[in-house]
Amino acid sequence: MGGCFSGDVRGGTEAVGGGATGAAAGQGQGQGGPNEALDHFLQGHGLRGLYTPLELSFSASKLRDMDALSKSDPMLVVYTKMDGRLEEIGRTEVILNSLEPLWITKTMINYQFEIVQPLVFRIYDIDTKYHNTPVKMLNLAQQDFLGEAFCNLSEIVTKFNHSLSLNLRNGSGHALQGTMTVHAEETASSRMAVEMTFHCLNLDNKDTFSKSDPFLRVSRLSESAVAIPICRTEVINNNLNPVWRPITLTSQQYSSRDDPLLVECFDFDASGNHELMGALQTTIAQLENLYKSKAGANFYSKKGQKKLKGQLFLDTFQEKVQHTFLDYISSGFELNFMVAVDFTASNGDPRTPQSLHYIDPSGRLNSYQQAILGVSEVLQFYDKDRRFPAWGFGAKMPQGPVSHCFNLNAITNDCEVVGFEGIMSAYSSTLYSVSLSGPTLFGPVINKAAEIASHSAQYGNNRYFVLLIITDGVITDEQETKDSIVRASDLPLSILIVGVGNADFTQMRTLDADLGKRLQSSTGRVATRDIVQFVPMREVQGGQVTVVQSLLEELPGQFLEYMRTRGIKPQPPQHASAPPAYPPPPPQL
C-alpha cells in the first residue's frame, strides 16, 4: 500500500470519514454518516456504498377466510422491485388457522437513502396438503392468493414507530378485505462506534529541509487482503511526534472487533504522492489493549520488511452508542426539498430539439426533467407536506427585467408547488412564459434558500433543507456564490448542483469542498462545513452509480454533522397509551 491509493479523495489536509465534527474538525463528515473514502473506493471497484441493515417484521388483520371448515393458513412473501422485475427476498412461516397472523420470521434488507426501494408484499393461504413442505419449496401458484400491498422502504422508516399499515389489494389493484403491517428496526450494531485519539513518537523524517507532515489512514482488510480505506486523520505539519484529533469509526466501517485493520502513516505531499512512513496491522480489540497498556506499537516498513523506531499510541479509546440518520428521521425530523432551474440563453431555444430545455412530445425527459424527477422521487418521502419551493434564474420576465430568482409557480405566484408533479408542470409552463437570458448567477437563489432555512431554525430544529440547482454553464458570480455558501454553512442546509450539457464545469468543482480546501469568503471567513455536492451529469450517465445516487450519497452525513455539532438529538419515541396486557392482581385482604 505504499505510495497511496487515493482513499485521500479530498486530496487535501483535512480529516476524512473518521467522524470529525465541529468547526475545528474541517471536512470530516458527521459520525456514522456515509464515508467518502470508502464510498470512493467501492464505487471505483464497481461495489455498493454504505447502507443501514434493517430487520422487517410482519403482521396482518382481518384476512379473508378461504377454508371451508377452518380458517386460512397465511404466509407472507416479500419482494423488492428492481428494473421493473420482482426479486423475492424473504418468506415468513405458515401460521395455522388464523386471520390475524403475527409472523415470527423476519426479513433483512439494506436501507440506502439515495435510492427508491419499492417493496411488494403478497399473502397466501397455504393448502393443508403442503403443511409439511418447507416454505422455501412451496409453489406459490398452487396456493390461494389473499392479497398484496406495496410501499417504498423510505415510507416505513419515516414513520414515528417505523411501522406502516397497508390495505390489501388483488392483482388488478382493487381493494380486498384485510390489512397488513410492516415494522422496520435497525440492528443494534449499526449504532455502535469507537472514538479514538492517536499520537505517534519518533517517526522517520522523509523531508530534507523540514520535518515531515504526517497523517494516518485506517483501512479495513477484506478476506482477499484488499485494503479498503475507511478514514483518515488530518495532516499535522512539520512534526515527527504528531497528536491528531479524535476519530470515530462505526461498526459498519470496522465490521467486528476482531477483523483486521491496516493503519498507515504517510508524509503528506500536495501532489498526492504521499510517502509511506510506516504501517501496522491490528484490530479494534488490539487497539483497546494498546490503550489500556499505555504502550506503543511499532510501525513497519512497506510489506513488513523492517521494524521501525516510530510508534503508534492511543490517548483515548471509547465505545459508544450514537444516534443514526434513521433515529432522527423516524422521530419527526424532515428533509425539505427546494429546486432552482437555470433559464439562461446558453441552454438553447426550448422550441428546438437541440436545446437542453426541449420538451420531447414523445415523453422522453430532458436532462433538467431527469434531475428534478430523480431527486424529488427520493426526497418526497422525507417531506411531510410535499410542498416544494421552486425557482428559476437567468430569464427575462414578461414586461420586466432579467430575474435571478423568480417563482416557477406563476399561477398563484407562490414559491411552493405540490409534489414533484407540481415542479415538472411549473417548469414546463415557465419555459413558454419567459425569455431565456443571462448571466448565470447562483447567489440570489442560495440566499433565498438560506433565508428560508434560517427562518425555520428560529422556530425549531427538526427541519433540514436541501436545495437542488440544475445548470448548464459556468457561473459569473463565483465569489458572491462562495460568500453565500460560506454564510449558509451554519444553517440546516445542503446544496446539490447538477451540471447538464457539455460546458466546462471545472470552476464549479471549487464550490464542492471534496478537494480538501474549505470555501473561503471574500472577508476571509472559512465555511463551517462542506454543504455542496456537485455532479456533472455527462460523467455519471451510463455508469453503475446513477446521478441521483452521486448527488445524495453525502446528504445523510451532512445532516448528521449539522445535528451533532449543535447537540441536537432525536425526539424521544412517542408511545400511545395502551391497556395493560393482563388485569391487575386482586387486592390483598
From TrEMBL:
Q: Which Gene3D superfamilies match?
A: C2 domain, von Willebrand factor, type A domain
Q: Domain of life, per the record?
A: Eukaryota
UniProt xrefs under InterPro entries: C2_dom (IPR000008), C2_domain_sf (IPR035892), C2B_Copine (IPR037768), Copine (IPR045052), Copine_C (IPR010734), VWF_A (IPR002035), vWFA_dom_sf (IPR036465)
GO BP terms in the entry: defense response
Give a yes or no for keyword Metal-binding in this entry.
yes
> Where in the sequence does UniProt note compositional bias of the Pro residues kind?
580-589
Q: Where is the composition biased (Gly residues)?
A: 16-33
GO molecular function term, any single one: metal ion binding
UniProt keyword terms in alphabetical order: Calcium, Cell membrane, Lipoprotein, Membrane, Metal-binding, Plant defense, Repeat
Region (Disordered), start-end ranges: 16-38, 568-589
The cellular location(s) given in this protein's UniProt record come to: Cell membrane
* Pfam families named among the record's database cross-references: C2, Copine
Gene Ontology cellular component annotations, sorted alphabetically: plasma membrane
Q: How does it sit in the membrane?
A: Lipid-anchor
SMART domains documented for this protein: C2, VWA
C2 domain sequence ranges: 30-166, 176-300
Q: What is its main location?
A: membrane
This protein's record includes keyword Secreted:
no
Every copy of the VWFA domain together lies at: 336-555
Please give the family membership noted in the entry: Belongs to the copine family.
Q: What is this protein called?
A: C2 domain-containing protein
Query: What organism is listed for this UniProt entry?
Result: Triticum aestivum (Wheat)
